[in-house]
Amino acid sequence: MLPASLKSIFSRFFGFQHLTPEEIEHRTLALTIIVLITLLDFTYNLAFYLFDGTFTWWTTATYFVASTVNLIRFKSKGNFRSFRNFQIVLTIALPLLAQITHGGFSNGSGVVLAAFLAPLGTMMFASLRTARITFFAYLAALAFAGVWEYFARPAPNNLPRELHLLFFEFNFSFTAAVAYFLMEGFLRNKATLLAMVQAEHEKADSLLLDILPAETAQELKENGSVQAKSYQVATVMFTDFVGFSAFARTLTAEALVEQIDFYFRAFDDIVNKH
């Protein structure tokens, strides 16, 4: 479960505090992951600058700028669907483009992070159809990059040992964080749905017990039907309330139901005692 303070900050800053708690949780989780990845990309570029100023850094810088602009655009326009779809395109295209411009796949790259986000992240934040399209688009882009590297045989850009180690740490830390947030969101949604089903089940049981005897209600729940019972002797009691019609006209609907419930509970108590 995401902290309430984080949900409050994101919902107020991006202007979706009026939505349902489920939708606020949904959007906050998406924004948290995107902000984390944007910060990761910033550290990538900072590392390029500090350890290897000649390295091709413009693709990761493009990802950082594009993600930042997308966040600003979402704040001003409030169109979550457009924001989400644009971020999906960035997730598929730019990590793979970075590998091509960097001379091929390298250790600690962002491709592994994109491999998590393409199928899992999209499934959490979009429809199943969109998630399926995104997943196959990612596979196609990955295959294209692999075929390109096989035939082009680009000269690799040898990263300094410090960058390899740093990117290795970044890659696994942020991939683990994204996987955790996604699974936590999934499990929380599952728990919420199960709680809702259980609550509705209890309401249905309570309604049955209000209408039917406990034995009959239990039989109906277990078998889906009730076997007719035969009694040698049965007593039917009719009741009438003198002046109740005129009295009922002075009551609200809620008060009338309460009065009827009060009287019939009293009759039930008398029957149970005698």
How would you portray this structure in words?
The chain is an all-alpha fold and about 270 residues long. The protein folds into two domains: about 5-200, no CATH class; about 235-274. The chain is about 75% helix and about 0% strand. The longest helix is centred in the last third of the chain and has 51 residues, at about 160-210.
Task: Please outline what is shown here.
The chain is mainly α and 274 residues long.
Summary keywords:
single chain; 274 residues; mainly alpha
Strand content: under 5%
SSE succession: HHHHHHHHHH
Assign an overall shape: elongated
Count of discrete alpha- or pi-helical segments spanning 4 or more residues: 10
Mean pLDDT: 78
SS elements, strand count = 0
pLDDT < 50 stretches: none
Spell out the blueprint of helices and strands:
Layout: H1 4-14, H2 21-51, H3 58-77, H4 80-101, H5 111-125, H6 128-152, H7 161-211, H8 214-223, H9 244-248, H10 253-273
Helix pairs in contact: 1-2, 2-3, 2-7, 3-4, 4-5, 4-6, 5-6, 5-7
